[in-house]
TrEMBL record:
This is Sulfate transporter. GO terms for cellular component: apical plasma membrane. It holds the Pfam family Sulfate_transp. The keyword Transmembrane helix applies. It is a multi-pass membrane protein. Residues 525-685 form the STAS domain. CDD domains: STAS_SulP_like_sulfate_transporter.
Amino acid sequence: FLMERKTHVKINRKELMLAKLRKSCSCTPKKLKNFVMDFLPVLRWLPKYQCKEYIWGDVMSGLVIGIILVPQAIAYSLLAGLKPIYSLYTSFFANIIYFLMGTSHHVSVGIFSLISLMVGQVVDRELLLAGFDLNDDGPPALGVGSLQNDSQSNTTAFNLTIAGMNAECGKECYAIGIATALTFVAGVYQVLMGIFRLGFVSMYLSESVLDGFATGASLTILTAQVKYLIGIKIPRSQGHGMLVITWINIFRNISQANVCDVITSAICIVVLVTAKELGDRYKHKLKFPLPTELVVIVGATLVSHYGKLNEVYASSVSGAIPTGFIPPKVPHFNLMLRVAVDALPLAIVSFVFTVSLSEMCAKKYAYTIRANQEMFAVGFCNIIPSFFHSFATSAALAKTLVKTSTGCQTQVSGVISAMVVLLVLLFLAPLFYSLQKCVLACIIIVSLRGALRKFRDVPARYHVNKVDTLVWVVTMSASALISTEIGLLVGIVFSMLCIIVRTQRPRTALLGQIQDTSFYEDDLEYENLSSVPKVKIFRFEAPLYYANRNYFLKSLYRLTNLDPNLEVARRKKYEKKEKQHLKNGGDTTVNGLGIGETTLQLVPKQIDFQALVVDCSSISFLDTTGVNTLKEILKDYRDLNISVLLACCNPSVIDSLKRGGYFGKDFGSMQEMLFYSIHNAVQFAKDQK
């Protein structure tokens, strides 16, 4: 039987687009109010804030995150190649802006190691091109004025005409100029992606790509911190292969290691790892995580200050961190042009991590987020702070998990965290003058435990899916051995190639009937299947399109043991020989063979089936080549008096076949060529003569 298709009303797309345009361009008080409330979601949920129920959890989680943020912000400044004050600015502004614009109740937005690394790589490259020395162990800068005019940098401040910056500008001033320009452009990209609804871009970053990228970048981060751990002075490597070059330089200069830094690093790592492991083991008994980083930083600062480690043992310290805020400054437009390409992967990675964490929290706590609004939120978390000497931000997994585990209910906790950072900015920052850089490196390395543990998951990942494991390995290797940006691009391209290859060479099978049922399955995979006399049932488990057309035909001919083109050619040759023999009228052929022997050589192959059923249940679409391929096998098999029947086609495949003329002009033979189940097609084939 042939089911009757519904008739769909044809939509006038031009009128539909005009109607949408009129609706979007119209301005009414209600629409304006909804726009403002959608743009600033805080206006919707804050008036409904249940203070008695939420305030304790928000205050507690906000304080804990703030306590964690301060040492992490100071530590991650090493990754970004900037002074610690800029990391504190970034943490402060990001929390305030996301509080106003974010739709997730739980994510923690601020400093993130991978984003800091990507910023630092661009900053280092541009400093090198501008003629600055990347050695960052010069005399520490003093006071607010030095943030704008770094005359005590390890290179002499000079008149920079590069990139349009004509004012006298030192290394630190130029570095933050690059970082703010990069951050501003990344934020603009994110806002534009939100306007044009390009959030679907994140779909091309699979879990394997993201995990591989994070692990490869973690190896790069770890490598960059080793020189601080052991207190050696080596140039900061740039360009491709940075990881290998850095390790070569480390081993060449290992004899210059600072014993004080090595001992301090060993003690800090032991304390941090032990505390983390105990915290993970007894987290169900602890109401909030242990502030181990803060304890280590305070203890190490006191020991360094009173032990005069910088003066006596030449241990590298953080230096002066000024209090207060630097006056805002517009990012340099000419610098934006230099970093416009670098800002694109930064924008995508920042958005993807934020949205994926937001969706994870929303699913866990049963609420919804708006991915497009998240793109606006993280975009403005980059654009606005870039005027206040801040760099790029993103949601961070570790802090988000801590936030949820300490009772966070809303983004009010983010405001509390921002207040803790503000307290440090206004009053406490100078107290960290004597803090050793090796302590900050220890905090960064220990924070990478989660990403580096992914290596332990490789066997389990391989057991689940070998292709995904290969994608992870390729992305991780490219991110670590080449560069983070190229690693991300390699991962995306390679994962897409894997999908293409899997559709180019999909599974194919001949089906047999499950005894005493109307169901059919793969003959090679299941026992006790019975073959259907005079009928071959072929399954192709992929869309049929130009890239896998040849594989479709080869698989069909191999499994049915019949190539219709060769068989037709053999028959024509046989007929030609027969006619020639009859014309000669002899008992022998030209070769001297007898008639019987010739017949044995050229007789057409005995075909053991009269109908071919193609199971189209796994064919999701057909392109023009796919339709022509089916038309080709229909014609070729008909020449051998074998009927071709299609079963289980979806509506889009049927429409493609109709448009391609597979069923003829009037679709009159459609009922004899198309069936809604394999069993119907088999029954029809059996009834044929």
